[in-house]
Amino acid sequence: MLAISVLHLKKYFKVYRRGAGFLPAITSLFSRKNETVAAVDDISFEIKQGELVGFIGPNGAGKTTTLKCLSGLLWPSGGKIDVLGYKPFDKKSDFLKKISLVMGHKNQLWWDLPAVETFRLNKEIYEISEEKYKQNLDELTKLLDVSEIITIPVRQLSLGQRMRMELIASLIHQPRVLFLDEPTIGLDVIMQKKMRDFIAEYNSRHNSTILLTSHDMADVKELCRRVIIIDHGKLIYDGDLANLVEKYADTKIITVDIAKRVDMKEFTRFGKIKSAADGKVIISVPKKNTTSVATTILKKYQIEDLNIEDPEIEDIIRLVFDKNKR
Amino acid sequence: MKKYFMVFKNSFAEYFAYRLNFFLWRIRVVAVILISFSLWQAIFRTNKVIFGYHESEIITYIIFISVLSGIVLATRTDRVALEINMGTLSNFLILPMRYFLFNLSRDAADKIINTVCSFFEIFLFILIIHPPIILQSNLFLIVLFFTASIVASLLYFEINMLLSFIAFWSKETWAPRFIFFILVNFLAGLYFPLDIIPGGIYKVLELLPFTYLIFFPLKIYLGHIDQTFLIKGFMIGIFWSILLWLFMGYIWRKGLKLYTAEGK
Amino acid sequence: MSKYFRVWLLLSFASFQSFFVSRIGAFLFLVGKILRFIFFALFLIFLISKTKVLAGYNLWQVMLFYLTFNFIDSTTQMLFREVYRFRQQVISGNFDLVLVKPVNSLFRSLFGWTDILDFITLIPFIIMIIFVISKIPEITSLGIVFYIVLVVNALLIATSFHIIVLALAILTTEIDHAIMIYRDLTGMGKIPVGIYSEPLRSFITFVVPVGIMMSYPVESLLGKLSTGAVSVAFFISLFIFSLSMILWNYAVKSYTSASS
Questions:
Q1: HEC assignment per residue over A263-322
Q2: pTM to 2 decimal places
Q3: ipTM for this model
Q4: Which of A266, B39, B82, C258 could pair covalently with C93 via S-S, beta carbons 3.0-4.6 A apart?
């Protein structure tokens, strides 16, 4: 069952340029130069119902713009979008009732009132029955552990608490498709983990399709099996995270715990040294040499431990971006 | 000194960043003046002299309010309240720059731009409408007019800063300022020259600082005033500006203590 | 339909509750508005008591113009208070969250923050209007009907203006007080528009229809308005309304959203 289908999506923005200084300031009164920026430049992909997909890309890559096109906020400059059988920009009521958009620091909670008042408002807006409302509210407050504080005025809550309330407000209508834009941004480590656990739980419980953008690798590593990598408005990779490693990683990481003191410089002939301290060396070795290098190290030195791993996802992604720059 | 000039320059440039905004702001100023102007013009269609004033005197008075509001009333001190409330005041406190001089520089830019625009607008206005306007030729009076305007600017600056300092104690800064604007609109003589008001009330107004913001300078410009009026006026005006300056400094120090104690 | 009414009730209720949080501010604000009303009224009374007649209108008639203006102005301020917060919503990006909900975003951005306090001020205005009308001779019931109809027409024009302000806030973040321009322009309707000389009078009646909004209701009550002029009034308000809706739809299409 296809939830989302995107074909050749394009979104262009006009940006104004103005020089610095006094004279350009006055001339800007009369004329300004403008340029067109291709935020999204021909992207296509499909997402099935229930998938949890991660959108990765550096800042300004076009992730959030894509998300906003999918939720109907932005009018696409070109291409076709289909979400749950609707054209998002039409903003049909039935469509909007089935989706939800959650963005980092944007808020919809009334500042001076308890969060539960905003939930009530959304109940009316989404036309949820009293029964369903109680059910959903119950489930969400339990999952997010906020049952005690929904009656406290929002301005008295901490950032983490507020974010959880925002989440509830966005999910009270049990959407079938969730767009999460940088959901863990600005949160402390513990909150980030809680957020990720919640997203994973929600996805498995309700089989909702979740699209999340992030430039925090931890989000993606933990939650998404499938990633879509976007850079400069173009789609660079669309597939399983595991395959990404296979496809792009041409190195392996060998971690060696040496028993006896050895001059670290010796290891440079095996590959690039990532770190060397306290008897532990981490080398980045070309994939094809892995076995030979490992064997050589084992033979030559007194080793306490040796580990062979794939490179960090972050490094692979960085590799992908660098490749794309050229 | 140079840093204050930079502040002035940057404040100036800000206007051009929001060019449409600025243009519309000038339209607002003109619209407000048009109300008074049309009202008085209609009155003079059926009366030659009213409240002891000829048409040309009142019309000049109303039109020159535009210039004077540029010199006296243009201010960015509302930002001070925002800076205190948002905590961005701290950024200024650690700079090697006196906050008051900083604000005066900011205001200077605001005043100059608005005054220059008002001259331009008045020029156009006179060209199109040919209103009966008085151009003062007495140099002495003109000098006194500008002096009174400067005292007026200082007064208005002080009052505004004091209003902004409310932010040290409360988040509600807009409402008191709003009430102050209303009071200034009427008690400073923005709709009519204050001395058309019957005796008793006028005597009270003479003692308040509002009178010296708009009415006093304009009355000097129009001429036909005696020495007692000038001397009394300047004395009261200067008295208020000194009093308010001292009070402003006092409130600033008190407020700052509170601000830094809260660790914003 | 009833969904929108329920939503509006909840939104107004929230706005009412938040009044209690800043009671002093709201109270001072009310005091300021009352002062503003009284000052200008006193000024008019003082002026006309000396001159007896202002552009052909006597004191009661001028007061009726002033009161009608205040009634229309207060009603629109009460209903459309949300429009004053709109630009901030667009800049911060919170407007995204409004657009994504199954409630018409225009409806929400117009009526989302109704000011109950202003509603209270309407009652004295209505009382004063009735009182002043009773002091004017030769008022016909047809005149009163037209008065009410034209006041409703004025509210429609005001709605269109507010929609245009909202659309502009989306299209250009440059105007940070478009709504204040509306207020200052309509403020020119405090006094009968007949007082302004041409070409200003025509400009302010037909191009920016302040005259149609504020002066026409009273003029028709006083029997000074031809049926032709009344038809023009309706035509113009319909025209401006259509324009505002076209502009709004265009704005939503061009919406670029705040960057993340």
A1: CHHHHHHCCEEEEEECCEEEEEEEHHHHHHHHHHHHHHCCEEEEEEECCCHHHHHHHHHH
A2: 0.82
A3: 0.84
A4: C258
